[in-house]
Amino acid sequence: GGSRWKKRGISCVPITYEVTLRPTPGKVSILNDGSIAVEVGGVEIGQGLYTKVKQMTAFGLGELCPDADKLLDKVRVIQADSLSIIQGGFTGGSTTSESSCEAVRQACTVLVKRLKPIKEGLEAKSGAPVPWSTLIAQANMASVNLSAHAFWTPDPAFVKYINYGAAVSEVEIDVLTGGTTILRSDLVYDCGQSLNPAVDLGQVEGAFVQGVGFFTNEDYATNADGLVVNDGTWTYKIPTVDTIPKQFNVELINSARDQKRVLSSKASGEPPLLLAASVHCAMREAIRAARKEFKANSPLTFQMDVPATMADVKELCGLDVVERHLQSLTSAAASAAVKA
Fold first, then answer.
1. What positions does the domain Aldehyde oxidase/xanthine dehydrogenase second molybdopterin binding occupy (predicted)?
2. Does domain 6-18+161-317 fall into CATH 3.30.2350.10?
């Protein structure tokens, strides 16, 4: 408000996002040395799928091993193919991690059922907890099947559920250049009972920044043949370190437990991207303030497309703001001279 050439805007945007669960396979195999190989239909693309799957494997087999941390170190996730894991499906839709985890948990339940009698028998003889290596060696000698496959299918009555979130963003635009700075963004997002808060926090932050790129920078052009001519980051502007809000706060909401969801967790991949709409709306408010000051005859309600690039912001603020400012100064000086 105090600056003529810098205008600020703030906006709060709530979101809901529906995700769909889908059938997913999982396979857990315990090798002779006690290590655990896990295969799932999903592919690790940076979303933390393998981290959550490893944790779920250690959790699922934890009943057999007194030291869950050592058990976690023995787990490795192998990238499956369409021969080792059929009906693997695709990776996407934000529910691959939780679906894969549930398939792995079911496979672990089968292994626990097979190994628990052996564990109880050994403990009855020794009167002490049985080391993992001893349990697996004894199971091998007893010809127990140490590999289990599961194909999890969601409850037909609970194939979809809603994710919730809200974001408040404050931006500052440069009326002369159209440049936008995100001063602060505060996000709250419902992850249910998070399987891994660190992973989910990264997912929320990353999705938001990706959304900022979608709403502000990532414009593209096509030629006469309809082909995209933006063939690299020199012309297609993805978010950079300067795009991230100067102050960025994210809070995960642990909503109530629900037995229908995988350990009461919720998706965290795509839904938070929509929270970046708060930046777009805040930019609109800043532009509205500029139009109110420089373009008296311009409507304060206007069309603002996505993405709202620097050039778009400059145009919406007014390409002639400097001329209008100089004209106002000249008019003021002339009026003062007349009065004198």
1. 5-245
2. no
